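On clarity, I found the account of how folds are encoded harder to follow than it need be. What matters is that the chain and its backbone geometry are given together, residue for residue. The format is easy to grasp once an entry is in front of the reader. For illustration, here is how one protein appears when written out as sequence plus structure tokens.
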Amino acid sequence: MAVEHRAPKAGEGNETHNGTGDGGVFQRPGGDRWLGVLRSPLGLCAAGLLLLVLLLAAFGPLLWSGRADAIDTGRLLQGSSARHWMGTDSLGRDVFFRVLVATRLSVVLALLATLLGVVTGLVLGTAPALLGRRAGRVVTAVVNVAVAFPGLLLALFFAVVFGVGAKGAVLAIGFATAPGFARLTQTLVASVDERDFVRAAHVAGVGRMRVLTRHVLPNIAEPLIVNATIGAGGSLLAFSGLSFLGLGVQAPSYDWGRLLGEGLNGIYTHPAAALAPGVAVVIAGLAFNLTGEAVAKAVGVPTARGTHVPPAAAPAPSVPHHTAESGEEPVLVVEGLRVSFPGARGPVTAVRGVGFSVGRGESVGVVGESGSGKSLTALAVSRLVEHPGVVGADRLEFLGTSLLSPGEGGAAMRTLLGTSLAMVFQDPMTSFNPAMRIGRQLAEVAEQHLGLNRREALSRAVERLREVRVPAAQRRAAQYPHEFSGGMRQRAMIGLGLMGSPTLIIADEPTTALDVTVQRQVLSLLGRIRAADGVALLLISHDINVVAQTCDRVLVMYAGRVVEELPSDRLLTAARHPYTRALIATVPHMETDLDRPLVVIPGRPVTPERVPDGCAFAARCPVATDRCRTDDPPLRVSEPGHRVACWYPQTGPAAPSGDEQPAGPAGGKDERP
């Protein structure tokens, strides 16, 4: 891909525009890369051999059919001579010209068999994505059984089933190569099917066939083409083998395998008759295989050979949600949210009784270490937790509509979530389809949820890109995600969420991996959108300073539950939970002593499958007692607007970075009532 080099315009900051395609499913090769491959020894050999084979297949029968079929009884089974370079056969026909003429039939039949194998493999490989889990498992099992058999054995079996002849051989080789291609397709489809843009298409109500043809297949086309090209060489060899055994092409037609079988009878007295078709098979097979390897090198793709339910575990008790101070009905209400996954010893509850609310125009931040359940909570609220995950809650409402009602999967629910809730993911490169232009991806939201036609939707997409400060929005809309820089992609992701009329934006680590300048631009953009349209914001972040400066309230999560909730202006000065204070202490500041090691929280976070009795933070807490290790503290109101789940909440300002943690009761004795 060509890389754009120009001076940044006003408003672009210091972002650079790259064409590396980082994060995409498969990188599309540019003209320079193709030229580089063609200039390499591998590329030159592949192109030269393939061109030779194709030219012989196209013009061989036209130029030499007469000489190849001419019978000369006076020159039977003669050896090589100036007149007959490879000698003659049992009827005096020139072997060399027969090999040239046989190129067309040999190549055409091999390509037909390859096409049949590819089409059948695609059907079998995409069946799990189209038919669903149950029927897909049956198809997958059939493919696994077929792959376990050697390809040659399958080809012989199908040759017997379909009968002797060219037609039967094509069917035999096609169906024999299909299982391997199906396995490859299944693997590639599964890798793309987990991408955020595919899951979003499912949530938006896009049909399975459209998701497959629009979002999945374009992103796996390159490796499939590479392996199909290489497979053509294998099909050519297999077809020649069947003809050699007498199961393929029958007289009076002939291909290289049949010529090889005829020449083998006189291999000791007349070796050239068998050598010529054998060399032709090798050259053509090399042509296809080297072409596949060259294409693989160019594109950088490796080739292949060959809903509401009861809680599963005893969760923490449901906690009351915070109500907006304005008295208005909150945009989002969550009570007793639970998310479970199957585990080796039973269900594993990763989110345990989370409760909170978000008012109109309010900004709520969620902080915590990795694995604390922040992103999973956001996915559950957005109905993006897929099987085998199980979502349950005492109450889960968005704009007054229950997300746990029996009709939650209907078109009305998809429209509500698609137009009123926007999700900004951590890595927009996995959320955008790398095979579609940015403008088309934004426009598709308006077409699906707002009923706009193609022209109106694209116009709305360009307008949204302008609103999120993407320069030259009309031109940018026609570009692919890899042509945007990291900050530009994040802005475009925000623009994607604004294609409807969102009431709530859930931003999951929107500034991760961005430099501080771009990070500030993205946060400022979210702030402007919130102020201008009264949009509520749920911001998930590891950065406590970002949350403290951006949000009105802060939720601190640990081990799948909320351990503290407080106003953001009190976060750095009045946090009461030891975990919150430990997080604050780990943040460096301008007065941090550079000669001392950075502060870390001792120990390791607990894993969802091994949550201990009592307070999950007790093993890492400097003030924990025996009571903390046996009784799990509820999330209680300590003062207006402030809730904390701790038996011994701390007082006073949080320890700055480098200072000692606050002292408190220690050992095994409970010193407070």
